[in-house]
Amino acid sequence: MAPQRRGAPKVPEGSGAAERRRQSSTKKDRVQQEALRRRLKTAVLGACAALGVLLVWSHMGGDDGVTEALAHRSEVLLGRFIEVPCSEDYDSHRRFEGCTPRKCGRGVSDMVITGEEAARVRSIAEKGLSLGGSDGGASILDLHSGALSVGKHFVNLYRYFGDKIQTVFSEEDFQLYRDVRQKVQLAIAEAFGISASSLHLTKPTFFSRINSTQAQTAHDEYWHAHVDKVTYGSFDYTSLLYLSNYLEDFGGGRFVFMEEGANKTVEPRAGRVSFFTSGSENLHRVEKVLWGTRYAITIAFTCNPDHGIADPAFTVKKGSLGALPGPGSLQPSGSVPGAPLPPEYSLDRPAHTPGALGLGPGQPGDVASTPAPGAALAKGDQQPLLQPSLDHAWSRLPAREECGCRSAVRASPSIIPPGFVQDTATQQGAQPGFEAGRASSSLSTALQGVSHLQLALHLDHSAQVPLASENILMPDQNATPIVLLPIIAVMSLHHDLCLVLSWTGS
Ligand SMILES: O=C(O)CCC(=O)C(=O)O
Ligand SMILES: [Fe+2]
C-alpha cells in the first residue's frame, strides 16, 4: 500500500479522476523522498570523505608525505639529537679531520639562546629588513656583506646608507650577533663531538623574513627541497635560529627534513636552534608560509678556513663599516634609511641553483661585494685596469648588449683556455633543467696579480649569470686564480655561451 500523506484530501471511492490524482501525488511523494534520500546519502558520503581527507591530511601534516614532528612548537627542548648516516657529499671536498662530518645528524635545542636574546636578534632583523624587502614573499638581510632584498633585487645596504647605517644598528646589535653565533657554534661542536675552533663561520649567513606574498622572482622561492652543501658549497654544518613562533606569528613555514617513510618537521619557536650536517643526508625544505611573518637566521659553518668569513664589525673606517668593501661611495647624498633605492643599485641576479630563498652559492654576499659586470659602477668603485694585454682582450669583447656569445669567447682566446666551454659543458653531464655544476679551469697566467675579478656568463642574450666571488679562488695575489664556474649545463649545450670578464688590480 502506498503511504498516505497526512492531511491529504479525502476522495470518494471509485472516482477515476480522484484515483489518478491520488496515484500521481503518491508518485510525486516517492520521487521527492527518493531525491531526499539521495541528497542525504550524498551528504553523509561527502562528510565521510571530508573527514577521511582531513584525517589523512592531518596525519600527513598537510604535506607531501607522512610527517612526524622532530620538534613540536609547544615542547621546550633541552636538546634532541638524531644521528643519520653521512652522505658521500663530503668526499668531493677537501677533508678537515676533526671537523668534516664523520658523524652526521640533526639536533634541536631551545636552551642555546634565551627568549630575550631571540627577541633582541629579531629586532635587528626587523630594523634591517624594514629598510628594504622583496616584492615577493622572501627577503634576506646579510649583515656580513650588506646584501638586502629590495624589490626584485639585492642592494648593499652599507654602500647605500654609508655612515647613516649607524643610526639603524648599534654596536650592541653587532655584539649580540657575535655572541649568538658563538653560542650556536659551541652547541654544534658539542653535538658532533668536534672542536668549536675547527668551525668557521661561512657565507651566506643571513636573516630571512618570509610572508605569504606571492613570489615575484626565483629568489622568493624558498620552499624548494635542497641540500645546503650543494646549494652553498662551503657549508658543512647549517644552523637556524628561529625568531618567531609557528602558529602564533605565522602559519605554514615548518622546516621539513625530507625522508622516505616519514618527513620530520621542526616547528619554529622563537629562540629555537636547529642544526644539522649540510650534506644530502639532510635534504630539506621549508613549507610555504600561509599567513603572518616568519623570521629566522641561517648561520652556516665550514671546516675549510679558506671559506671562513669574519663576524660583521661595527667599526667605522673611511666612511664605511669595518671589513666592508668600498668607502661607501655608492651612497647617494642625502639618502635616509627607508628612502627609495635608485635603480642603479638594483642588481638583478637570475637564480641558477635551486635552494632556500633562491640563493645560489654566496649570492647575497656576492651581490653586495661584486656588482654584475656592466652594472653601473660609481666613481669610487672603479680601479685602474691592470695588464695591458688583458685590457686589450677586454676591449675586444663585444659590448654586453651585443655580445655575440661564441664570438666573444673566440674574441678573447688569451682569457679562455682552449676547450674551456666544451669542457665545462660536457663535464657537467648535462641534464634537463637548471642544473648547476662546477668545473675548474685555470685562467691564463696573465691574470697573475689580479686581486679582484668579476665574471658573468651571458647565455643566449637573455640570461646573465654573474658569478659569485666565492667561485673565484685567489690563493694569493701572485698565484693564478682558479675559476670554479657554475654552469647551467643544459643552457651551455643548447645556447650560445658568452663569458664576460672584468678585473681590477690591487
Ligand atoms: O629557514 C629555514 O627554516 C631554512 C632555511 C634554509 O633551508 C637555508 O637557509 O638553507
Ligand atoms: Fe637550507
UniProtKB/TrEMBL annotation:
Its cofactor is L-ascorbate. Keywords: Dioxygenase, Iron, Metal-binding, Oxidoreductase. Residues 325-338 have a biased composition (Low complexity). Residues 203-305 form the Fe2OG dioxygenase domain. GO terms for cellular component: membrane. Gene3D superfamilies: q2cbj1_9rhob like domain. It holds the Pfam family 2OG-FeII_Oxy_3. Residues 18-33 have a biased composition (Basic and acidic residues). GO terms for molecular function: dioxygenase activity; iron ion binding; L-ascorbic acid binding; oxidoreductase activity, acting on paired donors, with incorporation or reduction of molecular oxygen. Transmembrane segments: none annotated. It comes from the Eukaryota. Residues 1-33, 325-381 are annotated as: Disordered. This is 2-oxoglutarate and iron-dependent oxygenase domain-containing protein 3. It comes from Chrysochloris asiatica (Cape golden mole). The gene is OGFOD3.
